[in-house]
């Protein structure tokens, strides 16, 4: 077990944003959080990172857990010259070799001398990912990493995540709106709407009434990827588990 949320609730001021969230992330798995706008996805990530304390319940992290974080947005002042190479050395200085290795791993090895503000959306995400990998994380946490990318870009990014997972064996927790790709690329999906509506393998979540109520019954051919069936049960709240 890498991270566990136990009966975790989070409030912003008087508003309860997350309530009674329970889940755990195991070594090496890819878990995706999906949910409508304002459902608490970023709040969940911030709580897991430890920057937002739960109002009740708790988060447990494995001892010495290393987290690599790719934020949803990072604005870089356009008037501030900053090469990719220099960006990778903030805040911890790294050698040219290590920088090149990180950029090569994420497929942007030719960009070291480019200005950060001149990168395309896809290149920027890959540089952020390269930076997150520098700490050799046990878990990578990415908040909507494919926002603004086109379809080939989204697919390529997910392939890269899978490749990185295989190479370094890290777990991956990501927030995403790309439902079809998510369903294909995740080991497990958590469907969030202020609380966990349902969670499980993609096929379990796809068939859950809570998921279908939030996202509609999607084109089954696009989602018919995992056809091995899992047994699951519905608890007294109508939530499903495998
Ligand atoms: N710092 C804050 N202070 C007060 N309310 C906040 C704060 N941050 C988020 N909220 C509120 O908490 C709720 C959940 O926000 P959050 O950003 O976690 O949702 P989200 O699922 O990530 O949304 P999106 O998909 O639009 O990024 C929203 O109603 C939001 O307005």
UniProtKB/TrEMBL annotation:
It comes from Donghicola mangrovi. Gene3D superfamilies: P-loop containing nucleotide triphosphate hydrolases (3.40.50.300). InterPro entries: AAA+_ATPase, ABC_transporter-like_ATP-bd, ABC_transporter-like_CS, Metal_Ion_Import_ABC, P-loop_NTPase. PROSITE patterns: ABC_TRANSPORTER_1 (PS00211), ABC_TRANSPORTER_2 (PS50893). GO terms for biological process: response to zinc ion; zinc ion transport. Keywords: ATP-binding, Cell membrane, Ion transport, Membrane, Nucleotide-binding, Translocase, Transport, Zinc, Zinc transport. One of its GO terms (molecular function) is ATP binding. Residues 3-218 form the ABC transporter domain. This is Metal ABC transporter ATP-binding protein. SMART domains: AAA (SM00382). SUPFAM superfamilies: P-loop containing nucleoside triphosphate hydrolases (SSF52540).
């Amino acid at each position: 077990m890498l991270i566990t949320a136990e009966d975790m609730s989070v409030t912003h001021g008087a508003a309860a944003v997350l309530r009674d969230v329970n889940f755990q992330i195991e070594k090496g798995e890819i878990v995706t959080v999906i949910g409508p706008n304002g459902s608490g996805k970023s709040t969940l990530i911030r709580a897991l990172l430890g920057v937002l304390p739960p109002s009740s319940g708790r988060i447990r992290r494995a001892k010495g857990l290393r987290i690599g974080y790719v934020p949803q947005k990072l604005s870089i002042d356009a008037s501030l010259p900053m090469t990719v190479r220099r960006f990778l050395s903030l805040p911890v200085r790294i050698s040219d070799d290590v920088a090149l290795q990180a950029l090569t791993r994420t497929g942007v090895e030719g960009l070291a001398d480019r200005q950060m503000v001149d990168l395309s959306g896809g290149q920027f995400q890959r540089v952020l990912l390269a930076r997150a990998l520098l700490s050799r994380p046990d878990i990578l946490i990415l908040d909507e990493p494919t926002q603004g990318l086109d379809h080939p870009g989204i697919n390529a990014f997910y392939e890269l995540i899978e490749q990185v997972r295989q190479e370094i064996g890290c777990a991956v927790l990501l927030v995403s709106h790309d439902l079809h790709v998510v369903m294909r690329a995740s080991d497990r999906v958590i469907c969030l709407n202020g609380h966990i509506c349902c969670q499980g393998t993609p096929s379990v979540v796809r068939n859950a009434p809570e998921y279908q109520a939030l996202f509609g019954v999607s084109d089954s051919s696009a989602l018919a990827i995992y056809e091995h069936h899992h047994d699951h049960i519905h608890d007294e709240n109508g939530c499903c588990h495998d």
